[in-house]
Amino acid sequence: MPGFGDPAARVLLLGLAPAAHGANRTGRMFTGDRSGDFLFAALWRTGFANQPGSDAREDGLLLNGAWITAAVRCAPPANRPSPAERDNCVPWSVREMELLSEVRVVVCLGAFAWDAALRLIAALAGPRLAARRPRPRFGHGAELAGEPYSLIGCYHPSQQNTFTGRLTEPMIDAVLERARSLAEDSR
User: Residue 44 is part of which domain span?
Assistant: First the structure.
């Protein structure tokens, strides 16, 4: 599944994989599922989207300054991608990042995306980053400054996180505002 958004984006949101009943059905990441409802509302509140929701590819949603993609490009069984699937998709992510030359901040939606982003940056930057120890740990609001990309961790906007209050609207809004600030500071 290809990513989508503003080709001049400075902020990239990296999710897990296309959801079987959302993106896999609609053909666009986070579109047509509850995770997307939560995410697009946050993107709208923080000025990254022109509308607060998305149900279909042709519903008029436009992103401004943001690009959305996934660590794994196809819907995995039981919505649980394997490390092998993640690693097989790294070349696609590398190429996507090469085409998105303005990206400076990667918002990692969940620990799986954080790990995938570290692998992606290592593939782009070379072995010096891959050898970094201790390996930076994921957490909501965790930041890893770097050149040319900084990472920010955010709990995934899944129902298990949003319905339980583990991820709230103010929490995701704060991450997106921080991502914008970091992206602007890197100009």
Answer: 4-185
Q: Are 81 and 112 in contact (CB under 8 A)?
A: yes
CATH code where residue 179 lies: 3.40.470.10
Residues whose CB falls within 8 Å of the CB of residue 136, separated by 6 or more in sequence, listed in order: 118, 142, 144, 151
pLDDT digits (tens, 9 = 90+) for 94-141: 999 999 999 999 999 999 999 999 989 989 886 655 555 677 899 999
Spatial distance between the Cα atoms of 65 and 138, rounded to a whole number of angstroms: 24
Q: Would you state the pLDDT for residue 170?
A: 98
**pLDDT in the model for residue 26:** 67
* pTM for the model: 0.91
Cα gap 63→51, rounded to integer Å:
9
